[in-house]
UniProtKB/TrEMBL annotation:
The protein, known as: Putative spermidine/putrescine transport system permease protein
Keyword presence, Ligase: no
GO cellular component: plasma membrane
Subcellular localization: Cell membrane
Topology of this chain in the membrane: Multi-pass membrane protein
Sequence intervals crossing the membrane: 29-52, 200-224, 236-259, 265-284, 289-309, 315-336, 343-364, 384-407
One GO term (biological process): transmembrane transport
Listed Gene3D superfamilies: MetI-like
Primary localization class, coarse: membrane
Pfam families: BPD_transp_1
Length: 418
């Protein structure tokens, strides 16, 4: 190649060549990461978006009682509903092709007002109100509906229909934080006997904090000991730490039921060494839940701590001792501060996993030990109230994001100070 064919350094051709090479490198990087981005979009972001959408969506009433909602749009929600609303209700219920839709509507209204289920289903079965070909005036329809069930004269049922006639509603999210909309549409706190989710959320945080603290107290000395061993011995012992990852959670919970029962190994050992004279209640209470969750989540605390501790040079402690510091003081003043990133990462990971736990409290805990995930499953599988289940899931998601934001802020402040 002649010297004339080589672009001189700093020429426009060389700059364009470098730009093309950089552009190709970026395109290659995007192409390599595109499958992962698509996978995350389909399996993570789309489900979260659907969850948040369903938490504010209220289609059960709006899609079925279309004409009734329009007839009640100008109603003051205090006086008796107008006669056209009765006619619209009969029209909407009579247009339902199958009883399953009426059952869905009845369940939704019954969650607002007790007795609405029997009222709606009884009225649906009584339709049509007139023989085929005969038309009734709105006043006649009202009289016939009242004859079918006099409860249609009570405004509370009509208030429930009017309040849920919109497809989008904040009711589920309000209920998840112990608030509701009144019949007039104003936001107000739930009555004391119905305000339960605030207590459940605090209970969830309480159990998660206790489990996280226990994991930290157990994992820190074990991770420190592993970090002082040779690589060969540490790898062998790390296998024992990772054994819980290879065992099903249900199997481990079943094993703890056997161990913690009144005649189980734990109570037998405690009585055998004389610590107790009779079996201790370790099942179906908070104690059993915490023990099992600590056992399951302990590796998630050990691994971040171990990875950080392995990067701390042991010469720091020896240097502090050689300068006159007591060994214990040197450990807490020199060594422990350098493991804060591992403590923060492990605590955050364990706490976030804890607040979403369902199986272990459901099998080992009592009625007062169930966490928020239990009620999400209850609304999903038993009551078939997807809106309420998604609203509670949104609360857990918000709590997780807040915890992560706090952790990021703490880490950034520590890095800036360092």
């Amino acid at each position: 190649m002649s010297a004339a064919a080589i672009a001189p350094i700093g020429s426009a051709d060389l700059a364009r060549s470098l730009q093309r090479a950089e552009r190709r490198r970026k395109q290659m990087a995007v192409a390599l990461t595109l499958p992962l981005l698509v996978f995350l979009l389909l399996t993570f972001l789309v489900p979260i978006g659907a969850l948040l959408k369903r938490a504010v969506e209220n289609p059960e009433v709006a899609d079925v009682l279309v004409h009734t909602g329009q007839a009640l749009a100008q109603w003051d929600r205090q006086s008796a509903p107008p006669a056209p609303a009765f006619a619209a209700l009969a029209q909407d219920l009579g247009a339902l092709p199958e009883s399953a839709q009426a059952g869905t509507l009845a369940r939704r209204l019954n969650s607002e007002v007790a007795g609405a289920r029997s009222l709606v289903m009884g009225t649906y079965r009584a339709l049509p109100l007139a023989p085929a070909g005969e038309s009734l005036t709105p006043e006649q329809v009202r009289e016939k509906l009242l004859a079918v069930d006099p409860r249609w004269s009570e405004t509370k049922y009509w208030q429930a229909i009017a309040k849920n006639s919109s497809r989008w509603t904040p009711d589920y999210l309000l209920a998840s934080v112990d608030h509701r909309r009144s019949a007039a549409g104003d936001i107000e706190p739930m009555p004391a006997d119905q305000a339960v989710f605030g207590k459940i959320l605090l209970r969830t945080f309480n159990i998660s904090a206790v489990v996280t603290l226990c994991c930290l107290l157990l994992a820190y000395p074990l991770a420190y000991w592993l970090s002082t061993l040779s690589a060969r011995h540490a790898n062998v012992l790390m296998i024992l730490v990772l054994v819980p990852f290879w065992t099903s959670i249900l199997v481990r919970v079943a094993a703890w039921i056997v161990l913690l029962q009144r005649e189980g190994l734990v109570n037998t050992a405690l009585m055998g060494i004389g610590l107790t004279s009779e079996p201790i209640a370790l099942l179906f209470n908070r104690t059993g839940v915490v023990i099992a969750m600590v056992h399951i989540l302990l590796p998630f605390m050990i691994l971040p701590l171990y990875s950080v501790m392995k990067s701390v040079p042991p010469t720091y402690l020896r240097a502090a001792v050689s300068l006159g510091s007591a060994p214990l003081a040197a450990f807490f003043r020199v060594y422990v501060p350098q493991t804060y990133p591992g403590i923060g990462a492990g605590a955050l990971l364990v706490f976030i996993l804890c607040i979403g736990y369902y199986v272990t409290p459901a099998l080992l805990g009592g009625a007062d030990d169930q966490m928020l995930s239990y009620y999400i499953a209850q609304y999903t599988n038993v009551e078939v109230n997807w809106g309420m289940a998604c609203a509670l899931g949104a609360v857990l998601l918000a709590a997780t994001l807040v915890l992560y934001a706090v952790y990021r802020r703490i880490v950034k402040s520590e890095l800036s100070l360092g």
